[in-house]
Write a structure and sequence with these properties.
Layout (H helix, E strand, L loop, with lengths): L3 H14 L3 E3 L5 E2 L5 E2 L1 E3 L8 H19 L4 E5 L3 H12 L3 E4 L12 E2 L9 E9 L3 H12 L3 E10 L3 H9 L4 E6 H10 L5 H12 L4 H6 L1
Parallel strand pairs: 5-6, 5-8, 8-9, 9-10
Antiparallel strand pairs: 1-4, 2-3, 6-7
Family: Belongs to the purine/pyrimidine phosphoribosyltransferase family. PyrE subfamily.
Function: Catalyzes the transfer of a ribosyl phosphate group from 5-phosphoribose 1-diphosphate to orotate, leading to the formation of orotidine monophosphate (OMP).
Subunit structure: Homodimer.
């Protein structure tokens, strides 16, 4: 049985090796929000690597069973949480549904897709690939609750570990668990020479003030 620390480090290693996570402290990325960031994460890349895909699926299942116990349904968050959620649901032998970012603009106008009855407030775990502020994830949680589901919590592959995410999940009364996190990633990256000491300082500064880091880095 792996410890949480071993899982965090193994997932960090996988994500760096296949470039699902890229670190560029001196040539930052621009997020959709406009934030400048020294890190870019695309966990969809894991789906193209069977060994890594299997490991992540198995560890998400173990984390769900450990933290949330028995559940009756798995829900993926569109879009990147859909394939991860489907894999987890298959492993557990459970119904799978997914939650759109907004309702359909045609047909039924549904926001939740799939056929999983909510009888007796069916307990559901939400699957995400990545957590930043948690806003889109919690939008899915609220949609599921509004539809009659009992949301046990959320499981994701990776989190940046922003304080605002912790606060948002706390306010929404939604526990969550992730396989790896920003601190574990930076630790592994430094120890295995993906980055140098100067890069580590820049990455830590970004983690403390992500919304203004780009302005500070440019000055």
């Amino acid at each position: 049985m792996f410890t949480n620390n071993e899982i965090e480090q193994q997932v960090a290693e996988f994500l760096l090796q296949i470039k699902a996570i890229k670190l560029q402290p001196n040539n930052p990325f621009t997020w959709a929000s406009g934030w400048k960031s020294p890190i870019y994460c695309d966990n969809r890349v894991t789906l193209s690597h069977p060994t890594i895909r299997t490991y992540i699926r198995q560890q998400l299942v173990a984390a769900i069973q450990d933290k949330f116990g028995s559940v009756g349904c798995i829900a993926g968050v569109a879009t990147a949480g859909i394939p991860q959620g489907a894999l987890v649901a298959q492993e557990l032998g459970l119904p799978f549904i997914y939650v759109r970012s907004k309702p359909k603009e045609h047909g039924t106008g549904s926001m939740i897709e799939g056929d999983a009855p909510t009888t007796s407030g069916k307990r559901v775990v939400v699957i995400e690939d990545l957590l930043s502020t948690g806003k889109s994830s919690l939008q899915a949680v609220e949609a599921l609750r509004a539809a009659g589901y009992d949301v046990a919590g959320l499981a994701a592959i990776f989190t940046y570990g922003f304080d605002i995410a912790d606060e948002n999940f706390k306010q929404a009364n939604c526990p969550y668990v992730t396989l790896s996190n920003y601190n574990a990633l930076i630790k592994y990256a430094e120890e295995h020479q993906f980055i140098n000491e100067k890069d580590v300082n820049l990455l830590k500064q970004w983690r403390e003030n992500p919304s203004t880091w780009g302005e500070m880095a440019a000055s």
